Description:
It is found in: Mitochondrion; Plastid, Chloroplast. The protein is an alpha/beta fold. It contains 25 helices and eleven strands.
Amino acid sequence: xxxxxxxxxxxxxxxxxxxxxxxxxxxxxxxxxxxxxxxxxxxxxxxxxxxxxxxxxxxxxxxxxxxxxxxxxxxxxxxxxxxxxxxxxxxxxxxxxxxxxxxxxxxxxxxxxxxxxxxxxxxxxxxxxxxxxxxxxxxxxxxxxxxxxxxxxxxxxxxxxxxxxxxxxxxxxxxxxxxxxxxxxxxxxxxxxxxxxxxxxxxxxxxxxxxxxxxxxxxxxxxxxxxxxxxxxxxxxxxxxxxxxxxxxxxxxxxxxxxxxxxxxxxxxxxxxxxxxxxxxxxxxxxxxxxxxxxxxxxxxxxxxxxxxxxxxxxxxxxxxxxxxxxxxxxxxxxxxxxxxxxxxxxxxxxxxxxxxxxxxxxxxxxxxxxxxxxxxxxxxxxxxxxxxxxxxxxxxxxxxxxxxxxxxxxxxxxxxxxxxxxxxxxxxxxxxxxxxxxxxxxxxxxxxxxxxxxxxxxxxxxxxxxxxxxxxxxxxxxxxxxxxxxxxxxxxxxxxxxxxxxxxxxxxxxxxxxxxxxxxxxxxxxxxxxxxxxxxxxxxxxxxxxxxxxxxxxxxxxxxxxxxxxxxxxxxxxxxxxxxxxxxxxxxxxxxxxxxxxxxxxxxxxxxxxxxxxxxxxxxxxxxxxxxxxxxxxxxxxxxxxxxxxxxxxxxxxxxxxxxxxxxxxxxxxxxxxxxxxxxxxxxxxxxxxxxxxxxxxxxxxxxxxxxxxxxx
Length: 714
């Protein structure tokens, strides 16, 4: 007994195409044969006989191989043969009483029932949304066809519904038989037609066709002896042989639903041929509904499912064949329970192996995708071409930036992804907003951006001038290298020139000392706004060179200057839950109580008394310590969220002696005292001073939240 193997993809495509062509032509040929030979039972029996003899003779001659006909296999195959016979018998009688179009419309309805049967009995996934839509389209087209069919009769549509039920059962059930018995293709054809030929006489007697054939033989008249009938029957038998081969082979190669959809799609060809050469087709409206139904069948997508069931059935075929060999051979497996146990074990082992292979393949594919994403291919360029593209990027960026140069520079409008366009005269802002599609050009632009950013970080101004100088140096450098100058000698020359220029600038520089001079510089930076320049001069006069000046949007139409005297701590709040101003991401405490402690605070008992005092006096609370963690931090957050106490904890700046010195300075400023010992468990901190105002601000552009802490007293 041979086990079934899955054919390669090109062979599968050939089998499906062969089945589609034979099925399309056979419908018209059978329609013509039944009109010339008006004995449907005998016609199908002759087809079965032709197929059985053809397979047997070609097998004897060595042109094909089929499995031997045995009684045990025949018993198992008999239900499938009965279903197949009923499908062919109802098909023939449908063509006898209705036209080809009616046969096609009911043939196209099979996905409706096959989809349900596949889901319920074959373990296929439920139809997708597109599949469900296609089923609705098929049903709507069928209803429209029936409504426009002027030749509708009870007999014709009775056979049509009988054919629909049997062909659906045949599609689903025979698929199971094909994959479970382990027969090869011609073995299936032999078993199917021999058993169907045995079934045929019973239906002759049930339908009374045996009397019609007997009368025709006795009278020597009727279509039984006409040449046209003989040719039509012969052609039908030949195509029956072909479709049996392609049909069974396609059933083994694809899922039941895929097989059904193939039958629906090939009806396009049947309709075209029928309309062209046959005069018994439907009305134009009926043809439109018919094509509508076939289009719905094309949209049907459940055919792509079923790979899992095919693999499962293929495993079952192999395992069942092995077990049957054991039963016939040495008799190791004595009862059915042992057979099922072995099948179940081997089936699960095979599935587990396939699952491991699938997981490994998925992991490899994922790794390759990640590698291709993280390690994209690099384009390598050398020499003049590389320098030319980089220079082009430098020049285009410098052209956009240079218009902002000087006190009378012009504004640049920059598009933003969100919000209104940005109008600016700042060279570094313009440079940062420029990106090129060409990667090499973008490299040149990035070099200029680095220069502008470095200038902005060190000097805070002159970014446009730095950009223009970079462009000139890069352009002249490219010319020199192209002319043959050594690049390293050129670099040394540039460094010497930089030293000379810096020395000259220092000798010619004039230090700014008065407020009027500072106001002049501020006015130039503010695009000539004298009022803003004077505010900058006043701020510089108040805070000095080491002071911090921040700019914020005001709530009025006037420009205002607010000076806060105090000190800055390079630390911020430990937890974002301490924020009081969500819009500005600030923690602002007005007239708080302040605790300064050098060590860590982790116990709840250490801060309970302090929280009670803050709650009693309705005052905010600020804790400055090495760290506030664990239960102590959780207690502060809970009191902030639930009790409404404004509280904030920050880490003391610095390390070791520097931290102690900084805390001493803070204590001097606030008039308090620094605790330098660990607070004993059960003890609490004491407050010695009350401060007037505390303002904690965050620079949001930094990932590690660097906060400026300003302290002042009234």
